[in-house]
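Hi team,

Filling in the usual template for the complex we talked about on Friday. All components are listed, including any nucleic acid strands or ligand strings, so the model treats them as one assembly.

SUBMITTER: L.P.
PURPOSE: interface mapping
COMPONENTS: two
RESIDUES: 712
SEQUENCES:
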Amino acid sequence: MRSESESVIDGPPMTQQGDGSDRRLVLPEPYLLFLGDTCLVTDLKTAFGLRDWAPEKCIGQYRMSEHTTSIGLADMGFGAALAAGAKSLLIGVASAGGAIPKSWWPHLCSAAHAGLSIISGMHDPLRCVPNLSEIAAESGCSLVDIRHWQPEHSVGTGIRRQGRRLLTVGTDCAIGKKYTALAISKAMGQAGMKATFRATGQTGIMLAGAGVPIDSVISDFVSGAAESLSPDNVSDHWDIIEGQGTLFHPAYAAVSLGLLHGSQPDLIVLCHDHRRKEIDGFPGFLVPTPLEAIDLNLSLARLTNSQVRCAGISLNTSGLDDESRRSLFRSLEDDLGYACFDPIVTGVGKVLEQLA
Amino acid sequence: MRSESESVIDGPPMTQQGDGSDRRLVLPEPYLLFLGDTCLVTDLKTAFGLRDWAPEKCIGQYRMSEHTTSIGLADMGFGAALAAGAKSLLIGVASAGGAIPKSWWPHLCSAAHAGLSIISGMHDPLRCVPNLSEIAAESGCSLVDIRHWQPEHSVGTGIRRQGRRLLTVGTDCAIGKKYTALAISKAMGQAGMKATFRATGQTGIMLAGAGVPIDSVISDFVSGAAESLSPDNVSDHWDIIEGQGTLFHPAYAAVSLGLLHGSQPDLIVLCHDHRRKEIDGFPGFLVPTPLEAIDLNLSLARLTNSQVRCAGISLNTSGLDDESRRSLFRSLEDDLGYACFDPIVTGVGKVLEQLA
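RESULT (copied from the run log):
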């Protein structure tokens, strides 16, 4: 993870749906980041991600005690955060199991009582915290459960939209699809291009302040929800869409396919980790080769965009020295004919060249 | 539609999940069929389907007046139906829009008051009928909204299950996937083979008395729900699984793919209508050729069952005379090498030969 001082989330305001509705989940921002009583850095990846990728949305941090790990933002109480403009207390902890610990309850209730909305990506819905719903209703603030949100239902139409779209796809889950999309959006913004990061998972939605948690959508509406996420736009605007799962996943391929069809990408970027042999957590299911993954994604994407093509392969090469990385890139580029890059080490310039 | 005197739904009792739970929707049966005040035969297709395919589940019919169209069952009041063993009043009407008319309200309330559960496939949930929830709770009967049901969540595992599986797939929606699966199950039962029809849509679930409305499942759990639908079984037992949608559909391909992966079919049967050129309701999206559809389904199905193959093509040839049908079948069989049949006209013998 690297620390950045600018947001990658900016872009021109989104055109609304034809019917005037916005079917995305939109979060009340900016945020006070809730770190709870967490001492494990790894449990704070949501908070670190927000600090690094969307610092302008983060007013400060709230720690239950001095023993809580700090992420380096200003410590603030609820009143001070409100005075500084915060709209929400955002739970920045992603612990295994996704339960909301009892020790947090009084703090969440105090925040709502003070007037902060609560944003949670935990498995436990916020309404399970005793009295919290009533307190939030009294203060007129909202409880936002990203995992449990459902959009207004609309099935896909397949109708082409104006503007351009890039979707990151992968050979597995957790292989760099969000990171790559964020890096591309950021670089495009810095280059003065019109680009908007479109979030499809909970961390991405917290970063962007809006999005569609695509794996929570009822299956009949997956491609429709993906269509809503990147609506009509000006013709030189790019939506950079965070991919999910992989078409080669025995559990999640349906989500990946609905997102692919609804996104109607002009370009895909494949995210791959050359060290991974099996789908994470699914022994016996092999990670496809980059070429297999590109071919299947392009072949299925043509249903809704016959002009789709692949703009390159994003690799995590953190285990390699410079020479080994160059050698890996050269061999993949020679064999496959697609640009290879590591968004952290080499940047995403090879993708941007193809967007001009 | 043809009239049959036997059920096709029988089969050995289903093995439960490893954790002992049944994640299917199970309906209280037998049924009294509610025909409301409907005068249009086409709006009664659910009722006719039940009468024809699952007559042993149908105790009688309930008409709001003599002007309601009859489907030829015994007219019965709620008390008489209960005395005859009925457990549910099943709404046999499928009208456009799926709203529950106000004129039905007192009849539904009376049925619940008398002690009948109510089964509905309408878009309006039954709880929207004033007082109905309270009345049902008092009488201890249930309100079952097939469209709004959610299973216990479980993601797919990709783990192979014992027993064999056949899935009907299609080149479009509404092209014979349910009918073909029912016809194959029925013929297998008559031939003394072990077969169970597995329903994935609301009419199929009403016929079978159980199933998973797969397009209502949250996308993350589609293949997991499909796995639950056809659990481990004895090795010579066949699950004949009702397909949904098509991989070539801009709105619903995700549902089709999740069902395909979770079903892990040993055999697919492709349902096709040679007269249809475009995906129904999606102008510009072409119906694939049978070979394209078979190839893509087999290619994607191999992820969870490397041995999958195609057992034939089910065609609706109702517009053709005998000579034209024979000619169509011969040309498809010569070109593609797959058995062609029309389940209504020629029966499904060509499929059964491949199951022995």
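MY TAKE: Residues 1-20 of chain A have pLDDT under 50 and may be disordered. Chain A is about 30% helix and 15% strand.

Thanks, L.
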